[in-house]
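To close the section, here is one more complete example, presented without commentary so you can practise reading it yourself. The ligand is zinc ion.
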Amino acid sequence: MTTGRRGEPDGLLDLRRLDLTPGAGAEADVPVTLPVVTMGGQPYTPEPAGVIVRVDVGSSGSGLGLRLRFGAALTGPCQTCLAPSRVVIAVDTREYQALGRNAQAAGDDDFDCEYLHEPARMDLDVAAWARDAMVEAIPMSIFCRPDCRGLCARCGADLNTGPCACGDDATDPRWAALEALRERLTGESDDPL
Ligand SMILES: [Zn+2]
Ligand SMILES: [Zn+2]
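Output:
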Protein backbone atom coordinates (compact mmCIF):
# COMPACT_ATOMS: atom_id res chain seq x y z
CA MET A 1 0.00 0.00 0.00
CA THR A 2 1.23 3.43 -0.89
CA THR A 3 0.33 6.61 0.88
CA GLY A 4 -1.71 9.43 -0.54
CA ARG A 5 -5.14 8.02 -1.37
CA ARG A 6 -6.72 11.35 -2.13
CA GLY A 7 -7.24 10.36 -5.72
CA GLU A 8 -9.38 7.40 -4.59
CA PRO A 9 -7.90 4.67 -6.74
CA ASP A 10 -9.96 1.77 -8.02
CA GLY A 11 -11.78 -0.06 -5.26
CA LEU A 12 -11.35 2.45 -2.46
CA LEU A 13 -14.09 4.50 -0.80
CA ASP A 14 -13.46 7.49 1.45
CA LEU A 15 -16.36 7.42 3.92
CA ARG A 16 -15.67 11.05 4.83
CA ARG A 17 -17.36 12.18 1.64
CA LEU A 18 -20.63 10.46 2.59
CA ASP A 19 -23.37 11.90 4.77
CA LEU A 20 -22.89 9.94 8.00
CA THR A 21 -25.36 11.89 10.11
CA PRO A 22 -26.79 9.44 12.69
CA GLY A 23 -29.95 7.93 11.28
CA ALA A 24 -29.09 8.87 7.74
CA GLY A 25 -28.24 6.26 5.16
CA ALA A 26 -25.63 6.80 2.50
CA GLU A 27 -24.77 4.70 -0.49
CA ALA A 28 -22.00 4.61 -3.04
CA ASP A 29 -21.30 2.65 -6.19
CA VAL A 30 -17.65 1.66 -6.35
CA PRO A 31 -15.99 0.20 -9.44
CA VAL A 32 -13.88 -2.84 -8.55
CA THR A 33 -11.72 -5.16 -10.63
CA LEU A 34 -12.20 -8.73 -9.38
CA PRO A 35 -9.18 -11.06 -9.41
CA VAL A 36 -8.86 -14.54 -10.88
CA VAL A 37 -9.50 -17.15 -8.15
CA THR A 38 -7.57 -20.43 -8.06
CA MET A 39 -9.43 -23.45 -6.69
CA GLY A 40 -8.11 -27.00 -6.84
CA GLY A 41 -5.25 -25.71 -8.97
CA GLN A 42 -7.69 -24.43 -11.61
CA PRO A 43 -8.25 -20.75 -12.48
CA TYR A 44 -11.75 -19.30 -12.25
CA THR A 45 -12.04 -15.96 -14.03
CA PRO A 46 -14.64 -13.30 -13.20
CA GLU A 47 -16.42 -12.23 -16.39
CA PRO A 48 -16.61 -9.36 -16.61
CA ALA A 49 -13.75 -8.63 -14.21
CA GLY A 50 -15.00 -5.10 -13.66
CA VAL A 51 -18.12 -4.84 -11.50
CA ILE A 52 -19.93 -2.05 -9.72
CA VAL A 53 -20.12 -2.74 -5.99
CA ARG A 54 -22.92 -1.11 -4.00
CA VAL A 55 -21.85 0.01 -0.53
CA ASP A 56 -24.51 1.11 1.97
CA VAL A 57 -23.38 2.92 5.09
CA GLY A 58 -25.67 3.59 8.02
CA SER A 59 -24.64 5.50 11.11
CA SER A 60 -26.26 4.74 14.45
CA GLY A 61 -24.27 7.22 16.49
CA SER A 62 -22.32 4.42 18.18
CA GLY A 63 -21.02 2.86 15.01
CA LEU A 64 -21.22 2.39 11.29
CA GLY A 65 -23.15 -0.42 9.66
CA LEU A 66 -21.61 -1.35 6.31
CA ARG A 67 -23.24 -3.47 3.64
CA LEU A 68 -21.64 -4.65 0.40
CA ARG A 69 -23.57 -6.05 -2.55
CA PHE A 70 -22.75 -7.10 -6.09
CA GLY A 71 -23.30 -9.86 -8.58
CA ALA A 72 -20.60 -11.64 -10.52
CA ALA A 73 -20.06 -14.61 -12.80
CA LEU A 74 -17.01 -16.86 -12.86
CA THR A 75 -15.89 -19.10 -15.69
CA GLY A 76 -13.58 -22.07 -15.34
CA PRO A 77 -13.38 -25.84 -15.73
CA CYS A 78 -16.12 -28.18 -14.51
CA GLN A 79 -14.76 -29.97 -11.45
CA THR A 80 -15.63 -33.41 -12.78
CA CYS A 81 -15.24 -33.23 -16.59
CA LEU A 82 -13.16 -30.02 -17.08
CA ALA A 83 -15.61 -28.61 -19.65
CA PRO A 84 -15.98 -24.81 -19.60
CA SER A 85 -18.40 -23.88 -16.85
CA ARG A 86 -19.99 -20.75 -15.49
CA VAL A 87 -21.24 -20.01 -12.00
CA VAL A 88 -23.21 -16.92 -11.01
CA ILE A 89 -22.83 -15.62 -7.49
CA ALA A 90 -24.68 -12.94 -5.55
CA VAL A 91 -22.78 -11.26 -2.73
CA ASP A 92 -24.60 -9.54 0.14
CA THR A 93 -22.53 -9.16 3.29
CA ARG A 94 -22.17 -6.80 6.24
CA GLU A 95 -19.52 -5.37 8.53
CA TYR A 96 -19.67 -3.16 11.59
CA GLN A 97 -17.33 -0.45 12.77
CA ALA A 98 -17.69 0.97 16.28
CA LEU A 99 -16.94 4.66 16.58
CA GLY A 100 -14.32 6.13 18.90
CA ARG A 101 -11.82 3.34 18.37
CA ASN A 102 -9.40 5.21 16.15
CA ALA A 103 -6.64 5.13 18.74
CA GLN A 104 -6.78 1.36 19.11
CA ALA A 105 -3.63 -0.23 17.83
CA ALA A 106 -5.04 -3.71 17.25
CA GLY A 107 -8.28 -4.48 15.48
CA ASP A 108 -11.05 -6.33 17.31
CA ASP A 109 -13.41 -8.46 15.20
CA ASP A 110 -16.42 -7.38 17.27
CA PHE A 111 -15.79 -3.66 16.93
CA ASP A 112 -13.61 -3.12 13.92
CA CYS A 113 -14.11 -3.68 10.23
CA GLU A 114 -10.85 -5.08 8.88
CA TYR A 115 -11.39 -3.29 5.58
CA LEU A 116 -11.35 0.17 7.13
CA HIS A 117 -7.84 1.51 7.24
CA GLU A 118 -6.03 3.54 9.85
CA PRO A 119 -5.37 6.17 10.96
CA ALA A 120 -8.95 7.40 10.83
CA ARG A 121 -10.69 4.13 9.85
CA MET A 122 -12.56 6.01 7.14
CA ASP A 123 -10.88 4.57 4.05
CA LEU A 124 -12.89 1.50 3.05
CA ASP A 125 -10.97 -1.04 0.95
CA VAL A 126 -13.96 -2.11 -1.13
CA ALA A 127 -11.77 -4.14 -3.51
CA ALA A 128 -10.35 -6.33 -0.72
CA TRP A 129 -13.78 -6.79 0.88
CA ALA A 130 -15.38 -7.65 -2.47
CA ARG A 131 -12.61 -10.15 -3.24
CA ASP A 132 -12.96 -11.95 0.11
CA ALA A 133 -16.76 -11.94 -0.09
CA MET A 134 -16.66 -13.32 -3.62
CA VAL A 135 -14.40 -16.22 -2.59
CA GLU A 136 -16.75 -17.02 0.31
CA ALA A 137 -19.78 -16.97 -2.00
CA ILE A 138 -18.33 -19.41 -4.54
CA PRO A 139 -20.16 -22.76 -4.24
CA MET A 140 -18.18 -25.81 -3.13
CA SER A 141 -18.82 -27.50 -6.45
CA ILE A 142 -18.74 -26.01 -9.93
CA PHE A 143 -20.26 -28.24 -12.60
CA CYS A 144 -20.86 -27.71 -16.32
CA ARG A 145 -24.40 -28.95 -15.63
CA PRO A 146 -26.14 -30.34 -12.54
CA ASP A 147 -26.04 -33.94 -13.78
CA CYS A 148 -22.50 -33.95 -15.17
CA ARG A 149 -21.31 -37.59 -15.36
CA GLY A 150 -17.63 -36.66 -15.34
CA LEU A 151 -14.77 -38.52 -16.99
CA CYS A 152 -14.15 -42.26 -16.95
CA ALA A 153 -11.54 -42.94 -14.29
CA ARG A 154 -9.92 -45.61 -16.49
CA CYS A 155 -9.85 -44.20 -20.04
CA GLY A 156 -10.63 -40.52 -19.47
CA ALA A 157 -13.57 -40.48 -21.89
CA ASP A 158 -16.21 -37.80 -21.34
CA LEU A 159 -19.16 -39.82 -20.05
CA ASN A 160 -21.55 -36.97 -20.92
CA THR A 161 -21.16 -37.92 -24.58
CA GLY A 162 -22.01 -41.59 -23.91
CA PRO A 163 -20.59 -44.67 -22.22
CA CYS A 164 -16.98 -45.60 -22.87
CA ALA A 165 -15.71 -49.03 -23.87
CA CYS A 166 -14.37 -49.94 -20.46
CA GLY A 167 -17.41 -49.09 -18.37
CA ASP A 168 -20.81 -50.75 -18.32
CA ASP A 169 -20.43 -52.70 -21.55
CA ALA A 170 -21.67 -55.91 -19.90
CA THR A 171 -24.97 -54.32 -19.00
CA ASP A 172 -25.45 -52.22 -22.13
CA PRO A 173 -27.21 -54.31 -24.83
CA ARG A 174 -25.61 -52.29 -27.63
CA TRP A 175 -22.14 -53.15 -26.41
CA ALA A 176 -23.12 -56.74 -25.67
CA ALA A 177 -24.24 -57.12 -29.28
CA LEU A 178 -21.00 -55.65 -30.55
CA GLU A 179 -19.03 -57.96 -28.33
CA ALA A 180 -20.91 -60.98 -29.63
CA LEU A 181 -20.32 -59.86 -33.22
CA ARG A 182 -16.63 -59.38 -32.61
CA GLU A 183 -16.29 -62.82 -31.06
CA ARG A 184 -18.12 -64.37 -34.02
CA LEU A 185 -15.86 -62.56 -36.54
CA THR A 186 -12.67 -63.57 -34.80
CA GLY A 187 -14.05 -67.08 -34.42
CA GLU A 188 -13.02 -67.46 -30.82
CA SER A 189 -12.77 -65.66 -27.52
CA ASP A 190 -9.06 -65.02 -28.00
CA ASP A 191 -8.80 -61.32 -27.30
CA PRO A 192 -6.34 -59.58 -29.65
CA LEU A 193 -5.98 -56.74 -27.15
ZN1 LIG B 1 -18.88 -31.46 -16.35
ZN1 LIG C 1 -13.53 -45.71 -19.88
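Once you have examined the C-alpha coordinates, check your reading against these statements. Residues 152, 154-155, 157, 164, 166-167 surround zinc ion (ligand 2) (CB under 6 Å). The chain is about 15% helix and 35% strand.
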